[in-house]
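We give this protein:

***
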Amino acid sequence: MIIQSKKVYFEEKLQPKQIEIKKDSIVGVYPYGMFKVDKDYKDLIIMPGLIDVHNHGYDGKEANTADKAWLDKWTLYLPSEGVTSTLASISSHPKDGLIKALKNIGEYIDKYNKKGTHILGVYEEGPFICSGKERGAQSTDYQIIPTKKVIDEFNNASNGHLIYVMIAPEMLEGDYSVIDYCVSKGMKVALGHTGASFEVCADAIKHGAISFTHTYNGMKGLHHRDPGVVGAAMYFDECYAELICDGIHVNKYAANILAKTKGKDKLILITDSVSIKGLKPGVYKDKNGKSRTISKDGVGYITGTNTLSGSCHRLNHILDFAIHEANIDFVTAMNAVTINPMRMLGINDRGLIKENYKADIAVFDDRFNNKATYIDGKLYK
């Protein structure tokens, strides 16, 4: 199969190109019009499929309570955003429930994830959170201090699919051996939900932490005499920085500043979407009594507070906001939803329109409304 467009995101430019797909891979990228095509997308944007590495849930449920039926529904929904790969992101929750969900996710990845969006692994955003206000919407009732034993317990439950771990580094009290251990197991470590000092972040980075969880949110802010976690996210060039670029979690000017400090290779746009995504405005409670409210403008809060509680956003809409509202450089924004998250995770078979890469491809109009999504070369929308 050959598809083409006058706007293919190839080698960090929109160019007229053809893409040849065989089975689940891209086997060639050619000049526009070179061969007879199966589908001409004309002036639509063809780009690598979007990758959301921080994604909790949708339609009333989250990875914390994942079962096969919901995972089927979730992975078949995500192509409508142009998302071709994601991580099942867990947060603070009763431990026995997390273990059960991790077992379900691991089994799903190994046996059932044959259709729809790829679940590449598990992102453990909680329960390794701080005790202070930076915990955000996560409950300290289920907080756990990370140890090698706990990491092994969660990883074994997921059948070895725990690949991204967030830690509030001040909780380690100067002993960073658990970060060393995660790195030795091939896991990537992020710093987040933390009130740590700049110096503590620097020490954690020396031990292998490489990313910051939803930068600005759930972390100690930047002050000119105390650069904090936000300052560390901006200062350390080797580190990636996640960003919820929706104009709600982060002001558009602050988003632009972060994008400029991280450049085209280290920014990662995320949704941090939770169970209320896809639901109508109203109040929703889960079985553990946690209550979230969706406002009329689609913003999620812990009920009765002004504390943001995840997002309801689609990644294609976040990409559009980043480019057209936050005025983030086009290449920086495009890389932030494609190749950057893959390089952060150390995965090198997707995220680019390139020969021998996965035929995971998204097609959008100029405002990033999804027109088609290909996963493993199969058309989903």
Summary: The chain is about 25% helix and 25% strand.
